[in-house]
Amino acid sequence: MSGPASSPVLELRDVTRVHGEGEAAVQALRGVSFAAYAGELVAVMGPSGSGKSTLLTLAGGLDTPTSGVVSVEGVDLAGAGAVGRARMRRTSLGYVFQDFNLIPALTAAENVALPLELDGRSGREARALAREALAEVGITELADRFPDHMSGGQQQRVAIARAVVGERRLVLADEPTGALDTETGEDVLRLLRARCDAGAAGVMVTHEARHAAWADRVVFLRDGVVVDETGADHVESLADATAQR
Amino acid sequence: MSRLLTAWRLPLRLARRDAMRHRARALLVVAMIALPVLAVTTADVLIQTATVSGPESVDRRMGASQALVSVSAETNPLQQAPDPDVGYPVFSGDTTLTAPSAEQVSSLLDGARLVELRRTVGQVVTEAGRVGAQALEVDLADPVADGLVRLTSGRLPRSDGEVVVNDALVADGFRVGDRLGFEVGSEVAGGATEPVVVGTAESTTYRDLPFVAGPLGSLGLDSDEQTQWLVDGGPVTWPSVQRLNELGALVASRAVIEDPPPASEQYAEVRAQSGTDEGLLPVLALITVMVLLEVVLLAGPAFAVGARAQQRSLALMVASGGTPAQSRRVVLAGAVVLGGTGAVVGVLLGLGLARLLQPVLQGFSQTWFGPFDVPWLHLLAVAAFGLLSAFLAAAVPAVLASRQDVVAVLAGRRGDAPASRRSPVLGAVLLAAGIGASAYGALQPSGGELAIAFGAIPAVLGMILLVPAVLSLVARGAGRLPLTLRYAVRDAHRHRTRTVPAVAAVAATVAGVVALGIGLSSDQREAEETYVSSVADGVGVVRAYEQPARWDALRGAVEREAPGVQVVVQQGLTDSDGGYTSVQRPEGAGFISAGSALGSMVLVSDGPLPPGLVGLSDADARRAEQALGDGRSVVFTGPGVRVDDGEATVVRSTFDEQTGQDQTLARVTLPATYLPLSDPYDGPSAILTPAAAAELGQEPSVVSLLVTGGLDGDQEDTVQEALKGVDPSASIYVERGFQPESDALIAQLVLLGLGGVLMLGGTLTATFLALSDARPDLATLAAVGASPRTRRGVAAAYALVVGGIGSVLGALVGSIPGVAVTWPLTSSPGFGGGGPTGPFLDVPWLMLLALVVALPVLTALVVGASARSRLPLVSRLD
């Protein structure tokens, strides 16, 4: 794992995000600063409405901050423009959602190949890379199956394969195990962990401490502010405590 | 190119799979695109098939010959089109030629053999009377005549005493062995010795018309006016045609028609005459734009709902790095897949339907169609039209889909973009432009209809852009409405992408129907207002043109067939001797038209006025009778023009053909009383006393019989038949005032029906798409205790909202061109200052009421009755 001495893959500097205007304005994030490095899996925890999902959408370039800077591999996402952010999503970062979010009209391989095809790669090349990514998550044999014909765990593996296909160095996961049983969830976390150990940076939003225990660090958010940040040791004790309960 | 293909590969795959996953919606769109394509394809193929082109008609026109040469008795050098039946030949008026002889023609065609052919329309004498028939004289046994007729039984004639007839004459009783009498005009054709029928043969041109053919002389046709020859020889080239043209011959050459010379070698003046109708192109463009708009609007909701169903996939695509352009492409690819399928299916089904309808349509035609003609280039354009309409229908949903809030959609919320603030402004500007164009067209002295018609396009487009603002207004005022209606109004407003095209489709339909309806009604109003009665209502006028007329017998026929009526014999001065009588009225006496419904411009009476004379006030009628009784003639002046009693000059003249001048036969000056006619068109110009007529040297004669006492329609028919029996030139006209044309009523009913079908189709589609889209909301309704009938209520309310708002908007916008078009349509210059001149405006309120109230309510009832009552149980994250 790379340490803080190297440059971060994802960095948020004094990020604020306000939704709405006037009396209806809601401050989802208030001056959040945070970084994730290559080889590191960071868990983000906090109660509902604390700003976890907003943080993830900002990190993924699906939204832009009201103030502050969000950069991925040194590129300021707000400054990159909509087209630049779309390119970043195709090439540098991948999303894993709680409810899998596969496109029902595409097969598993086609879902995984989606970012590559959107990036203009040839169909054959995209499918070859997609099969490699599917092999990485252990479901090559499901490549031609449609999402409707796969279990939740299988769908989430496809989603992870889609998030890591190609040369992505940042994986963003929003409650990736929320819709899965315990055993399947553990499998998914293991895959995420393995991807980070292979050199990617991961940011995972989760409610559960035992899932956070897979991370190297845990960032706690409350009311849009980072209230605590712990190292891996503390995360493990958290997990132990959870397990004992 | 490969980059383009790469860019569209994924969207097309997604669209194809999406269509397979949502077959019902896909079928709906395919049907909407396919139906107009099918209709146009069928019509186009049938029109092309029914239209016999030059090359297709060669055999039926000239048999197996190389050319058909026609010469007239007196002719001029001429210039013709390669196919003389296209356009008109241009004659040089400088040199008059006598018809070229067969030898002259033959010598210009390298000594080709010429076979004479004669054609005319005459009458075959049947047992029941006479029947019109096409006649052909040519040596049918000559191989060069092959293709002119098709022998169906018996044999071809061998001498000029033999003919063949077709099935239409067989139906009139002619059989092989019968003799056949043939007349041209009212005389038996010269030299005809009733030929014997030796077989039946059909003309290759005429299908259902009586037809008779035989060798030259068999029917006694003459060639005094025109001679035609079939050319048996080598191909007749364009230079040969031109040489014959110089002799004044018109030539239809097989070789030239099948392979016309280049434009540069054709006569420029003739080409200029046969150009496309300039007015046709804008009208076609207008119809195309309006149909395109209608199809786009009808298919729009389906694409809007499709885009909505795809919004999560599109959001995921964006999350995976897709750009807005790629999102748009996915929705547009749906249009390519479904529009392409619809276009192909429409063309194929259209071809099949045309094939099925061809014999049916042929049954209504009196001429034979050409071969089944598939105009592939046209059909390609029609299919492209279908594809384009799908593409345009998907354009707005595609743009909106690319602008959706990805985060909201991924979080399970709906990511509708806020309503544009610019659209209503642009809509108002376009609407104003449409009104301006209509006003401009209305004020033009001529040809304003086109400006008004084209002004309808921005008006309708402007209305479409204003629909969201109208929905917003209605939604704001929906607070006090019952639940189902409130829900429908607010849902329609929230989901504008699917509501706007549905409302707009209904509105565009209603606008068209209202515009045409107002135009038709106003046209009828003009006809009614400007109707001029020839005589007083209920009075009949019997006239006869055959001289000498058998007035006593005609009177007897009237009195026999309609006992109880009174018949007055009207005397007047006639032009039968070649002379005519005119009354010289003082300067400023106003306009009186040349023509009298009573039989003559100058009537003769010693007191009583002709029954049924219109346009004279009661007081003036009494003065007229008094004057005639006192021996003064009555001279009529224009409406409202009073001239003091005095004298009038009456002149009897004749036209001298040698000098080209009128020659006065008699001139008398008479004491006259001047009286104005309120209507200057059909009244006589004067009523002379018998003494005045005698002074002119004219013996008054009967000019008409005036029938009073009320003839009903049946009696009129009976009397008419009886009069024809006495004298074929005699007829009776009974004045019944303005009678509305049944065609106009039928046209309005057809418009209403068409509007109803389109409105029902548009509303039903939009409503059921909305219901499918609103499943989560309906599930919530079910969860909080709504009864199963609520779904029906919501469906009916939604249909009422779409149909109601659409029809009100459509009626308002349609009334703009509808009212405007009444100016150019119903304004007249007003001859002689008499009568109303327009414009006439008649709004068909009953039709409007049916469109704006009855049809939306009916549609809502149909929707409510046909909607499923079971509420869906689905997750909100469906």
Automatic annotation (TrEMBL), chain A:
One of its GO terms (molecular function) is ATP binding. Coiled coil: none annotated. The keyword ATP-binding applies. InterPro entries: AAA+_ATPase, ABC_transporter-like_ATP-bd, ABC_transporter-like_CS, ABC_transpr_LolD-like, MacB-like_ATP-bd, P-loop_NTPase. Residues 10-245 form the ABC transporter domain. CDD domains: ABC_MJ0796_LolCDE_FtsE. Transmembrane segments: none annotated. One of its GO terms (cellular component) is plasma membrane. The keyword tRNA processing does not apply. It holds the Pfam family ABC_tran. It comes from the Bacteria. This is ATP-binding cassette domain-containing protein. Keywords: ATP-binding, Nucleotide-binding, Transport.
TrEMBL record, chain B:
Belongs to the ABC-4 integral membrane protein family. LolC/E subfamily. It is found in: Cell membrane. Its main location: membrane. GO terms for cellular component: plasma membrane protein complex. The chain crosses the membrane at residues 280-309, 330-356, 376-402, 423-443, 455-478, 499-520, 745-771, 797-825, 845-867. InterPro entries: ABC3_permease_C, Lipoprotein-release_system. It is a multi-pass membrane protein. Keywords: Cell membrane, Membrane, Transmembrane, Transmembrane helix. It comes from Nocardioides flavescens. GO terms for biological process: lipoprotein localization to outer membrane. Residues 287-405, 751-865 form the ABC3 transporter permease C-terminal domain. This is FtsX-like permease family protein.
